[in-house]
Amino acid sequence: MRALIAGFVATVVCAWGQAPVKGDLEGEAAKLRALVGATPRLALTKTVVKVKAPGAGWEMGFPSAVAMGGDGLLYVLQRGEKADPVLVVDGAGRIVRSWGKGMFAIAHSIRVDAAGHVWTVDAASSRVMKFTARGEKLLEIAVGGQPAGKSGFNGTTDVAFGEGGRVFVSDGYGNARVVEFTSAGKRVREWGRAGAGDGEFHLPHGIAVDARGLVYVADRENGRVQRFTMEGRHVGTWEMHGKVFSIAAARDGIWVGVQHFNEPNGAPGWFLRLDRESGKVLGMVESYQGQHVLNLTAEGELLAGARPDVVLWFRRGGR
After folding, report:
1. What integer best gives the mean pLDDT of the chain?
2. Which of 74, 232, 267, 289 is deepest in the core (most CB within 10 A)?
3. Which SS3 state, helix, strand or coil, does residue 236 take?
4. Closest alpha carbon to 106 in 147, 65, 54, 45
5. Residue 183 CA neighbour count, 13 Å, CB half
6. pLDDT tens digits, one per residue of 167-209
7. Confidence of residue 16 (pLDDT cuts 50, 70, 90)
8. CB of 111 within 8 A of CB of 295?
9. Average of pLDDT values for 17-29?
10. Are the C-beta atoms of residues 309 and 61 closer than 8 Å to each other?
């Protein structure tokens, strides 16, 4: 029966144009279960921030991504039509401010840079926007190059930042590439193409840059993390044996959000902390379906969103 289910999932996913490259889905699932089972559980406790409705008729949808600003507030990018796409929330779930009505087709990722600017990514229009913490739009990057004939998800997936204002965008739904821009939004270079070889992608879904200037790409349907210089030279690959949705760089390593290949997108998965040199898995936390996009606080705590309307904060010390 499990084999039949796996085959059904593979067929459906293939029909959506995102068929996993891995052929032995059950075998990959067994490897991921073994990896998680042998990994120490980290002392991070899941807490739920319940966002409070400001009035009648208000309703939050799926929080596709959650980040923390330099002001200690949570910046939530959500997809519901009965609320602004960007919600700024305090730790008690009270909405401090919001913005973005009519500016997004498919809200996908939100990041806050070192200067406190808020960046958003739209997976349909393939636009990256930069805002002040108050919601004033400072920059819009139209990534472009979207293939014709597709609808819905057909654009960019995530954004990350390097020294000197360098901006890196994973362009994963319609394309299979990373595109670099200057801080002013001028295109610098791109790399990658569809495939399973070094420097090739099958839905690059997340991107991060560490303090050393290495670029990490969550190559989702290939089930791996690829590493590059900021000029796009491939320097290594870490196989993860499951869909790698999200990635974030911390002082103590690299975090990824993974789930099984043979389960529908959004099924429960794990956040794994990896050694930045070897890719060895050092610790894990159950993601409770929140592995879509991962952000970190300055203290190394994890922030994510889960369906249908859950804001997750994985805190140290059980706070």
Report:
1. 93
2. 74
3. strand
4. 65
5. 9
6. 999 999 999 999 999 999 999 999 999 999 999 999 999 999 9
7. very low
8. yes
9. 74
10. yes
